[in-house]
Design goal:
alpha/beta; Rossmann fold; 2 domains
Length: 410
């Protein structure tokens, strides 16, 4: 029945008008669990470490998402990033390392010193390299005594089981390692031969131990220069995948002592890039095998930070990168990507920035560990407990399952 108010309206218009008077449902705003992070970026103290963990562009992105970044003065200088660039990106420039290490999350490249660890408070988070080949029990005991949540970024996985930091740094190392080899083959430093080959001259012989990312990028460079490349690995599926990725027919072999010894005798350059799935590097080249190599041949042990592939290897740095043993040049610098620090810093920022955004969205580091197994893989110490089985076994220390510790929180 039409009333005075609805007179002249169609039935459809009347229905619509009546519906507007009914109580209406409204969407309830769901608040995201987006925590604000305080992230500290210290200046690296390790000799010749030129990288920094985040670029100014990455800092700006995190600041725009509500996070606070504290950068120690001079932290980016070796990567050619100024304090002014960080300040303009929204970071707070701090001159006291104690203040930087008091942040909720400390992100750095090299493992911290014992003094730097002493600045960190209980329950805070450290994200850095671990370098198991240079690890000490004193370092581990300090981390546990201070009840720090310690995460080795080289152990962090992505959603498909890869190791993004290792992959990125390995790409850089593999692309750089043959340039280093060329430098120590020339007349000034070595035997005076070109890396590769030219018409009428036998090509340089390159042996690569390992069939991972470093091997792939090193092989691409060496093959492109005309060198003869031979690749060894005990995982046949890795060798098969590498041949497919290279797109060329290249010599591959599993590691047996007789074949490897023969190839080492004839090699001009040997690249060591083997890594164990448990976190260390298998030593496959003995001292007597090195002693049989050609005079002024070059060994580059990319895996030295994980213990090294050669019995004669010992860690060096960018200031004094090489030594000779049995007249064989050894290059055993653990942080080869630091030679191209700006590129390496950009690559690291591309990995860490999305992780921090996700940590904040999940509600914090502990919630991220609990909900993301790929992130949990990086945790080696949790509030006074050693949670990495390989490290615990290596140093004969007590181990606790991280999943059980995290479940106990609830």
């Amino acid at each position: 029945m039409k009333t005075r108010l609805t007179k002249g309206l169609t039935d459809l218009e009347i229905l619509a008008k009546e519906h507007a008077l009914y109580p209406q449902e409204s969407l309830l705003m769901v608040k995201e669990n987006n925590n604000r992070l305080l992230i500290g970026i210290p200046k690296e103290k390790e000799a010749m470490e030129n990288r920094v963990a985040l670029t100014p562009e990455a800092v700006a992105l995190l600041v725009n998402n509500g996070h606070e970044i504290v950068v120690e003065a001079g932290a980016g200088e070796s990567s050619k990033f100024s304090d002014q660039e960080y300040s303009e990106a929204g970071a707070k420039i701090e001159y006291s390392p104690q203040e930087v290490f008091s942040s909720d999350v400390v992100l750095k490249i090299e493992p911290p010193t014992l003094e730097e660890l002493s600045y960190m408070k209980s329950g805070k988070t450290l994200i850095s390299a671990l370098q198991t080949g240079n690890l000490s029990t004193e370092f581990l005991h300090t981390v546990m005594r201070n009840k720090i949540i310690a995460i080795a970024y080289e152990f962090i996985e992505d959603k498909v089981g890869g190791m993004p930091v290792i992959r990125a740094m390995s790409e850089i190392a593999g692309s750089t390692v043959m340039l280093i080899a060329a430098e120590y083959l020339n007349s000034e430093n070595g035997k005076g031969v070109i890396l590769g080959g030219i018409t009428g001259v036998p090509p340089t012989k390159v042996v690569i131990l390992g069939a991972g990312t470093v091997a792939e990028y090193a092989a691409r460079t060496a093959i492109g220069l005309g060198a003869e490349v031979k690749i060894f690995d005990n995982q046949v599926y890795k060798l098969r995948r590498l041949r497919h990725d290279l797109g060329v027919q290249v010599y591959t072999s599993t590691i047996d002592t007789i074949t490897l010894r023969k190839e080492l005798r004839e090699a001009d350059v040997v690249i060591g890039s083997l890594r164990s799935e448990e976190g260390g590097s298998p030593c496959v080249v003995t001292e007597d095998m090195v002693a049989e190599m050609k005079s002024n041949s070059v060994i580059i042990d990319v895996s030295i930070d994980q213990g090294g592939c050669f019995e004669t290897s010992r860690m060096t740095d960018h200031k004094n990168p090489v030594f000779k043993k049995y007249d064989v040049i050894h290059y055993c610098v653990p942080n080869i990507p630091s030679r191209v620090a700006r590129t390496a810093t950009t690559a690291l920022s591309n990995i860490f920035t999305p992780i921090f955004l996700q940590i904040a969205k999940k509600g914090g580091v502990e919630d991220m560990i609990y909900t993301k197994e790929w992130f949990m893989k990086g945790v080696y110490a949790y509030k006074g407990n050693l949670t990495n089985h390989y490290i615990a076994k290596k140093f004969n220390m007590k181990y606790k399952d991280l999943q059980l510790l995290m479940a106990a929180r609830f």
